[in-house]
Write a structure and sequence with these properties.
This protein is of the alpha/beta class. It is built from twelve helices and ten strands. Strands 3-2-1-4-5 form a five-stranded parallel sheet, with helices on both faces. A five-stranded parallel sheet has the order 7-6-8-9-10, sandwiched between helices. Helix 10 links the parallel strand 9 and strand 10. The chain is globular. The chain starts with a strand and ends in a 15-residue tail after the last helix.
């Protein structure tokens, strides 16, 4: 059995998909067990390679009840807490970054300024496990009762520095609505007020506010079948990448080179005008504040054109040349 720790959020799980797929390929006969928060379970299912999930919110006592794993893999962080959490399971082998505080000298060195996808692919490569950093797609869920073909505006983010002003989100939403987009505003339960403000300023109907009304699986389905996604540097951005949904992503304070979509996919565009001096942390970061409504609308036009071109190219591919769907191991 292979025990993997990734007890973080939506974007963290999505950026760890290439590493998880690499572990599945490296250990085809072993059960792959992922330690992650319970609420992420619908997304874990969409990765398609995890056999079982152990629920954990962040770091702490794992309380591992089973036999020692053949290997434990730290895809959570640099340690030492995450190293020690996995050590509780008494694995026969630990795959992790070197960390002297955890008493772990094996493994490659940590690099702070590195794309999150590359970080874990590099770590596994150090142990002889090749990973494809482009293998980011999630299985596409059915839409269920959710609307399809909508434009998703997601104004929230965990940190105030990463939140573009709601009046600017509203201005873009108003313009897109006028162009014929059906705009919905999403967010977590704690983001309903900001979502309602964006909808009100944009002149959207009350039922356009979906913040707090969807769980993470429903949000993934909404993004998977959306026309466009507009958001900051947050988990929804990674869902758009995973489902190849055209997206305009607003970055600050960190650059897209750390958390952005692959630069060779023009149907995703990450806007960033940094680096800029750090703000005081209480409001939007200066690099994000410099992005204005015309910048975003121009990016919408570019990703929309790129998505149309891509769709036309896909239609021209002969059926026998299409790749088969990913196999799902249960």
């Amino acid at each position: 059995m292979i025990l993997v720790l990734r007890a973080l959020g939506v974007g963290d799980l999505a950026t760890g998909v290439p590493a998880l797929r690499a572990l599945r390929a490296a250990y085809p006969g072993e059960e792959l067990v992922l330690v992650a928060p319970r609420w992420l379970a619908p997304l874990v299912e969409l990765v398609g390679v995890v056999d079982r999930q152990v629920f954990a919110d962040g770091l702490g006592h794992l309380g591992w009840p089973g036999p020692p794993p053949a290997a434990a893999v730290n895809l959570h962080g640099r340690g030492p807490q995450s190293h020690r959490m996995l050590a509780e399971a008494r694995p026969r082998r630990l795959l992790a970054f070197a960390n002297a505080d955890a008493g772990w000298q094996d493994g490659p060195p940590w690099r702070a300024e590195e794309h999150e996808v590359d970080r874990w692919c590099r770590m596994l490569g150090w142990y002889g496990i090749p990973a494809d950093r482009t293998d980011l797609a999630l299985r596409r869920p059915g839409p269920g009762a959710l609307p399809t073909g909508v434009t998703v505006v997601h104004p929230g983010a965990k940190a105030a520095q990463r939140r573009w002003p709601p009046e600017r989100f509203a201005a873009v939403a108003r313009e897109l609505s006028g162009r014929g987009h059906r705009v919905v505003v999403t967010g977590g339960p704690g983001e309903r007020d900001i979502a309602a403000e964006v909808a009100r300023r944009a002149g959207l109907p009350a039922d356009a506010v979906l913040a707090g009304a969807t769980d993470v699986g429903e949000l993934a389905a909404l993004v998977a079948h959306a026309r466009l996604v507009l958001c900051g540097d947050t988990g929804v951005a990674h869902l758009a990448t995973a489902f190849a949904t055209p997206s305009v992503l607003l970055f600050g304070p960190v650059p897209p080179s750390w958390w952005g979509p692959p630069p060779d996919r023009p149907w995703h565009e990450a806007l960033w005008v940094g680096p800029r001096p750090a703000g005081d942390g209480s409001g939007v970061h200066p690099a994000l504040a410099e992005l204005d409504v015309p910048d975003v609308l121009a990016a919408v036009d570019r990703v929309t054109a790129a998505a149309r071109s891509r769709a036309g190219a896909v239609r021209r591919i002969p059926a026998q040349a299409a790749h088969p769907p990913l196999a799902t191991r249960r």
